Amino acid sequence: QSPYAEALRIEYEAILAQDDTGPDGERQSLTEHERLRVKAVAAARKAIEELRTNGDIGDEAFHKIEEALDRTELYALRYADRP
User: CB under 8 Å to 34, separation ≥6 — which residues?
Assistant: First the structure.
């Protein structure tokens, strides 16, 4: 019943509702949820780069956030040939 459980439910429903498999049965494109996730990661990358450039965060904080964004992006792109 948590907000996290609801978010997962919505994500899995979107994945199951999308029918864009190729002849080999593999997914060929991103779900809307994944496309939004990739866009959000791009915006977050831009924001942390600005924070680093302005001296608002240091290298250690920048790299820690960057690593989390990398994992998030990889998760969103795990089945796609391209974003």
Answer: 76, 77, 80
Task: Render pLDDT for 21-36 as a digit per residue (tens, 0 to 9).
Answer: 555 556 556 777 778 8
Length of the chain: 83
At 3, is the secondary structure helix, strand, or coil?
helix
**Rounded-to-10 torsion of CA 9, 11, 16, 17:** 110
Q: What is the pTM of this model?
A: 0.65
Per the structure block, which two tokens stand in for 56? 């608002």
Read off the pLDDT of residues 48-61 as tens digits, 9 standing for 90 and up: 999 999 999 999 99
